[in-house]
Amino acid sequence: MSDCQGLGDCADERMKRIYEYVDGVLSREDVEEIQAHLESCPECAKEYSLECLIRTVVKRSCREAAPETLKERILARISHAETASAV
């Protein structure tokens, strides 16, 4: 049986520990404790899965390069703004 009665009862401290678990910064004992909790708590397991999905999407997005035309437009606007403020 889960020790969570919905996310409201363990969300803050438990979710902080789950984020640390995902980051790989917990001791072996803490990892085992979190794994056991995730197996018995569907609410936290759902939040864990969502966090993993978000991190995967962010990692994938960070590898994509901006189109060269976007870079050129941004640099042109910066140059225009600098010129306008110098006048």
TrEMBL record:
InterPro entries: Anit_sigma_mycothiol_RsrA, Anti_sigma_zinc_sf, Znf_put. Residues 15-45 form the Putative zinc-finger domain. Gene3D superfamilies: Anti-sigma factor, zinc-finger domain. Keywords: Transcription, Transcription regulation. NCBIfam families: antisig_RsrA. This is Mycothiol system anti-sigma-R factor. It comes from Arthrobacter deserti.
